[in-house]
Amino acid sequence: MVERPWLLVAALLLGSLAQAAEPAADADGFKRPLERLQFNSGHEQHEFERASLAILDVRDPWERWNRRVYHFNYRLDEWVLLPAVRGYRAVTPGVVRSGVRNFFANLAEIPGLLNSLLQLRGRRALDTGARLLLNTTLGVAGLWDPASRMGLPRQGEDFGQTLGVYGVPAGPYLMLPVLGPSNLRDAVGQLTDFLAANRIDYLNVATASDAHPEISALKAVDKRDSIPFRYGQLNSPFEYNKIRYVYTRARQLQIEE
Amino acid sequence: MPRLPSIAVLLGGLLLCSRLPAADIDPASYGFPLHNPFEATIATTPPELRPDLPPDSEIDQRDYSLSLHPARPFALPDSLRQVRDLRYRLARQAHAAPLIFIISGTGAHYASSHTEYLKRLFYGAGFHVVQLSSPTSYDFMAAASRTATPGLSREDADDLYRVMEAVQAQQADLPVTAYHLIGYSLGALHAAFVSQLDETRRRFAFKRVLLLNPPVNPYDSIRNLDRLVQTDVPGITGNLTFYELILGKLTRYFQQRGHIDLNEALLYDLQQSKERLTDEEMAMLIGSVFRFAAADIAYTSDLINRRGLITPPDYPVEEDTPLAPFFIRALQCNFGCYLNEQLIPQWRRRHNGGSLSQLVGQIGLQALREYLAGSRKIAAMHNADDLILGPGDLAFLRRTLGERLTLYPFGGHCGNLNYRVNSQAMLEFFRG
């Protein structure tokens, strides 16, 4: 019982210190959090509107076509791709799925390496080359990803980015069937990366895929499984506009980086 | 006569109970690290202080849809075809268990982050869980609301009740031992009204109902939320908009760290760096999220009811119709605007006039004062620094709920729902 007054004093002291930066509370305990804010005077109150309208400022002359593709993708996702992903997850153990994911990601290092070289990013090209080497050998054809554990994280670069780095403008926004949001420049980039990977035919996967279309199907299902985005997830009647902005801005940031 | 003493104790207990003060959680022992209400609202609890939750792979869950198609004067436009049926998510236990309905907050749908978190928490504790969209979410407005003009709590609760009955019918094979109800933010207000409705309809006979951070007077709450985007943020001029300013801070922060790492502790870490956001900037971010929700509500309600305020009444809105002109108009409309231009005129037409104060009196928790005071199955958890409260709201909750109100000293708006101390208290309430 002797300790009690001390505890009380300590608590009071601590309490008063902790609350020094906070406004006094009402009798019912309410702290009036909005009263610590500085508000704008009358005529400057439209920053939200001003900033948000800028979001809509994306060149999209093919909007009607793009919107139809967006709805097509929405349905394809729900009726084909996501059921396929669910089936794939149900029949395949996690360790196999991560092996599949790593295997295809390892193949994707090839265009990544080429693009790092094209952008004259020596450091990144070296890192990506080292990843490719380590994961293909130690990681047994890329089924494991020992490079990440050795402190070499994946750093994807694509040809769309390379074009952007050299000043090629994004061009009109373009919703690609199945593949989703893009723009003219990035769509050309995607095609180029695909053709380059086919030409190089690393580990003979491209050749094998021609004979066994199931490899491409597996790649597609794995790809969909790896993307957490779901159509409808933004839960807004303006989802198309929001995706368009986020895609465009994210690409700008990737290129500026 | 051996029973007499226990009855006396019980009576005494009841008398005392009605006068017991709210459970005020002591700031010193509470341990929630974010004492800034804006930080807490955005970042929520640092990951290491969250409860252990089951991963997706251990949850037997599926999305279902209900074809309610409420009768309305106008057909649903093609652009809303993807929300013609109402989706909900059910996580089922392999055995008989109590079922808990979760009602989401303002503009949020059944799979939004707070709702998903609550699902994991209660599923892990052995409940069947049903996740529902808010009546203010555009999917609910299109697929389940009879007026598609949310804001009248009783009507919203009525729509919700029909949805819950439809869920019950669709899941008739699910072995349910008891029904519970929980809602956060605006969903908590809805939960209170749904619970009252259930007292007469008795389809669920809810055993326990928990209100997490409810607005007490929603009219005051929306005024607070509308004001958040009017804070003074220095440095915004010309081409630099508010979002670019925030993006700039994030970019510089990532450059200093050397890599981009979008994880759950992002804001927490950012606030420890020199690129930290000011209170005004965080308020504006929170306010912006709510303004986008307000834009969705105003647009959807106007479109479904062909009011012609945002979309011209005879304008064909197909799947491929560019919506930017309407998005622009909707973005100008905050909650107050939606209330004045759509909700109140509609309410006046259907209820023969009536003043704003009458409407305000009908939609808040005050309208349920006696019911809340007398229903021991209902409890509330709130924060002393919640952004949606106004002066006197906590006094009302204290008077009405007594010890059934737990008041936490920190957490902002719903920022401490995923703090271990809170999650423990929630589970105890439903187990007790």
From TrEMBL, chain A:
Signal peptide: 1-20
Cellular component terms per the entry's GO annotation: membrane
GO annotation terms (biological process): intermembrane phospholipid transfer
Coiled-coil ranges from the UniProt annotation: none
Lineage: superkingdom: Bacteria
This protein's record includes keyword Lipoprotein: yes
Name of a matching Pfam family: MlaA
UniProt entry keywords in alphabetical sequence: Lipoprotein, Signal
InterPro entries, per the entry: MlaA
Family: Belongs to the MlaA family.
Name of protein: VacJ-like lipoprotein
From TrEMBL, chain B:
GO cellular component: membrane
Signal peptide (residue range): 1-22
Keyword Signal: yes
InterPro entries: AB_hydrolase_fold (IPR029058), MlaA (IPR007428)
Keyword annotations from UniProtKB, A to Z: Signal
Official protein name in the record: Serine/threonine protein kinase
Origin species: Azotobacter vinelandii (strain DJ / ATCC BAA-1303)
Organism lineage string: Bacteria, Pseudomonadati, Pseudomonadota, Gammaproteobacteria, Pseudomonadales
